[in-house]
Write a structure and sequence with these properties.
It is a single chain. With 138 residues, the chain is an alpha+beta fold. Helices cover 20% and strands 41% of the residues. The protein has 3 helices and 8 strands, in the order βαββββαββαβ. Strand 6 and strand 7 form a beta hairpin. The radius of gyration is 14 Å and the shape is globular.
Length: 138
């Protein structure tokens, strides 16, 4: 399995960037209090300027609760034989500027999100990318 580590944001493979730009739903896996995996569908976006990835969610969601306690996560997307996973850590941010920035990035890939006064932004520090050979050359 191809792995991109360390992550050089200035030299990401074009096929990887394209795949993370296309509209695909993702699965976010975090760790519940008892250590069990918690996997849910999300929208995730790469942010080259900030050298991170973003997810938006409700501040009271289980994923936000889990990530406040333990920031480790995996975010995966798949389409046919193409797939990619982000391995990293998340910081749960509730300040207006971070939430607005994450919402703007989300809107570029998906759609303008509905209003949610309790929304938070998950800022993901990407430690490595995993992927199929179609998105990460060996």
């Amino acid at each position: 399995m191809p792995v991109l580590h360390p992550v050089d944001w200035s030299a990401l493979p074009p096929a990887l960037v394209e795949f993370w730009t296309e509209r695909h739903l993702c699965t976010l896996s975090s760790l519940d209090k008892d250590g069990a995996p918690h996997a849910v569908p999300v929208g995730a976006v790469l942010d080259h300027a900030e050298r991170c990835a973003w997810i938006i969610t409700d501040g009271g969601s289980q994923k936000a609760t889990n990530l406040r306690r333990d920031g480790r996560l995996a975010v995966s997307q798949v389409e046919g034989a193409r797939w990619s996973t982000i391995i990293g850590t998340a910081e749960v941010l509730d300040d207006a500027a971070s939430v607005a920035h994450a919402c703007a990035r989300y809107a570029e890939r998906y759609r303008v999100p509905r209003e949610n006064p309790t929304r938070v932004a998950l800022r993901i520090t990407v430690e490595r990318f995993l992927g199929s050979s179609q998105v990460l050359p060996r």
